[in-house]
Amino acid sequence: MQVLKTVKEARLFRESLKEAPGFVPTMGALHFAHASLMRYAKETSPYIVSIFVNPTQFGPGGDYSSYPRTLEEDLEICRREGALAVFAPPVEEIYPEGFSTQVVPSALTDTMCGLSRPGHFSGVTTVLTKLFNILRPSKVFFGEKDYQQCRVVMKMIEDLNLEQEMVICPTVREKDGLAVSSRNSYLSQEERSQAPALYAALKKAASMIEAGEEDVQKLVSEIKKIINLDMPLGKMDYVGIYSPDTLLPLTEINGEVLLAAAVHLGQARLIDNIVIRKEQIKL
Known about the structure:
It is a single chain. This protein has two domains: 2-169, Rossmann fold, CATH 3.40.50.620; 182-275, 2-Layer Sandwich (Pantoate--beta-alanine Ligase, Chain: A,domain 2). It contains ten helices and nine strands. The chain has helices spanning 7-16, 32-44, 71-80, 91-94, 113-116, 120-135, 147-159, 189-194, 197-210, 216-230; strands spanning 2-4, 22-26, 47-51, 85-87, 139-143, 165-169, 234-242, 257-265, 268-276. The strands form three sheets. It has a four-stranded parallel beta sheet with strand order 1-4-3-2, sandwiched between helices. A three-stranded antiparallel beta sheet has the order 7-8-9, with helices on one face. Strands 5-6 form a two-stranded parallel sheet.
């Protein structure tokens, strides 16, 4: 497995390949959910992993400086999972002096996480555009936990006529239901014991929809009630029911829906979602 540090090295490595690789973009601090993405990638083609803590997707007061950086451990995971190479550039390689261009998404970011994290998705789409151009992968692999990010990136690929195919992989969870995230390491023991309430609340609303409940306000109230009761240390960012395509809030249940929520718990910001497909809804 090669470790690539510069754009030049990455491009030369890409040119040496006979076929376009798969690509798993990460910010490092890898865990078994990242390993799951790598396994999905490996099923389709040889693949490259990037490890880059992207400063432009952190807002003022964000956790950029404290975000866990575990490069040697990350490289070992990538070796174990069979990655062809890891692209782990320093910040100045991606954003050299004088860098001034952004890829700015629009409508899909005016909701959910975009409301409380202004500029976040511009940072995501800008760095991904650069990485896609440098590595020229065929398929790119993302986790469904970051549903809004997936939709934003899919729209970017479509709008900019990029050649990548996006593969959205199922959310990986701990045994108690908590979605696996690098930021879970921020949780204290007490906070960690309360964290599964987020997914439990979404699951309860999902079961109500599947049983025929159509009252959006009742569903949102149920999610909030469970979070307030079982996660007293949490502070809700948003809770809502959205269109899986447009991410706009829904006022009625008449097709596929996205249940999504974000909660601040100690130093961590937890996000989670459940997509209810048409075939799951009782008519």
